TrEMBL record:
InterPro entries: ARM-like, ARM-type_fold. It comes from the Eukaryota. SUPFAM superfamilies: ARM repeat. It comes from Protea cynaroides. This is Uncharacterized protein.
């Protein structure tokens, strides 16, 4: 988009955002035209097409909007003349309301399409200019992410594909010349695209270096985005991580100096346990995962949930009737969540075993075999029989036989 048009587009953008809201209000409740006929936004919307030098005359992409505004004004005038109390007047108002709602919806869509075009064009153009300030890049990326997060829209998808937005976001994510903040916001935009339409954008993620780059960035934020993508794409993405030999790198984050990165890595490992197939789980166990988890469970942010659960049971003993029992269970779950917020590695070995046991990636026979292997490795990793007994009990108690 040309620099000379930027100020005008920003001004038009603000006007059209207000007009879009007015169109939405009319579409959802045409009666507003009678009860709130003095609304400034609605009046501007109805009179816009008649204004000399109005914003519609400067942009060919808004030519259809002018025709729709003319239709809307005619329908509104017709509605306002239908003031009688006869059945015929009532029916005319019903028909007019339906037609007004339909035209207002079309106007809303036309305005949104223009806004989408401006957002996408501005994003692609700006990301290609290295001299643009970081705040401006982040603002545009956030704006795009928010728009895509509103849900699927076919016209918007066609615009995104035509403008090759994914490739632009990918190149920014992979380019260390961009700041960490811009690269992380690009990762969020990619995640939003996958949520927008998995059928289209999952393959682009799997065929791109996105996953490798997120892992190589080695930040709390990048691993959180990776976790989100694992939840969206599931086993195919875990397969890609394992095939690219990234499992050892992920497990190394459990030893990072940054505790927030350790916590993000733990969440990622639990997601892999839930969605991963046999090869991914084997790769984690061969890299000494259980030893690392035992060490984390014994750390200051570790602990175990068995004692907390026993305390909860003692605290609510004798309460076992209907809604009271459910309320007690709810309090127990909230207590556990609060405990895990302060002790993110509490019972992490058992939690890993549970994710394997209830996950989607393994056969029942594989689950049983891995459970036995986990128990064996726990006994090898623990420095005392008491430690081993506690963790073994948690694994046996926390996952089904």
């Amino acid at each position: 988009m040309e620099e000379a048009r930027e100020p005008d587009n920003q001004q038009v953008l603000r006007v059209l955002e207000a007009l879009k809201q007015a169109s939405k209000d009319i579409k959802n409740k045409p009666s507003l035209l009678k009860t709130d006929c003095n609304s400034s936004a609605i009046n501007v919307l109805l009179e816009l097409e008649n204004e000399p030098g109005n914003i519609l005359s400067d942009d060919p992409n808004l030519s259809n909007l002018s025709n729709h505004l003319t239709s809307l004004r005619i329908l509104v005038d017709k509605l306002r003349r239908s003031q009688g109390h006869s059945l015929q007047s009532f029916l005319r108002r019903r028909v007019s309301n339906h037609e007004i709602s339909k035209v207002a919806g079309t106007i809303e869509n036309e305005i949104q399409a223009w806004i989408d075009r401006v957002i996408v064009e501005k994003l692609v153009t700006t990301l290609q200019v290295s001299s643009v300030e970081e705040d401006e890049n982040v603002k545009l990326l956030t704006q795009f992410e928010n728009r895509v997060s509103q849900g699927f829209n076919r016209d918007l998808q066609n615009l995104i594909l035509k403008s090759k937005v994914f490739s632009r976001l990918e190149s920014v994510l992979c380019n260390p010349k961009f700041s960490k903040r811009i690269r992380e916001q690009s990762a969020l935009a990619i995640d939003a695209l996958v949520r927008f339409n998995k059928d289209v954008f999952v393959d682009q993620v799997l065929m791109s270096p996105t996953i490798r780059v997120l892992i190589s960035m080695a930040s709390n934020f990048s691993i959180q985005v990776l976790c989100s993508l694992i939840k969206l794409i599931k086993s195919p993405l875990v397969d890609e991580i394992e095939a690219n030999g990234e499992i050892p790198k992920l497990l190394s984050f459990l030893n990072a100096e940054d505790w927030s990165l350790r916590i993000a890595a733990m969440d990622c490992i639990l997601d892999i346990a839930y969605f991963g197939r046999k090869e991914a789980i084997e790769a984690m166990l061969e890299e000494g995962l259980i030893q690392k988890l035992v060490e984390l469970q014994m750390s200051e942010l570790g602990g175990d949930l068995i004692e907390m659960d026993r305390f909860s049971e003692n605290e609510t003993s004798g309460v076992c009737v209907g809604g009271v029992e459910m309320e007690s269970k709810g309090r127990k779950e909230k207590k556990e969540m609060r405990f895990l917020e302060n002790h993110p590695f509490a019972s992490c070995v058992a939690r890993f075993a549970v994710h394997l046991d209830v996950g989607e990636g393994l056969r029942q026979s594989e689950r049983r075999a891995f459970k036995q292997e986990i128990l064996k490795k726990v006994k090898e990793a623990c420095v005392s029989d008491a430690e081993a007994a506690t963790i073994v009990a948690e694994v046996l108690w926390g996952s089904s036989p």
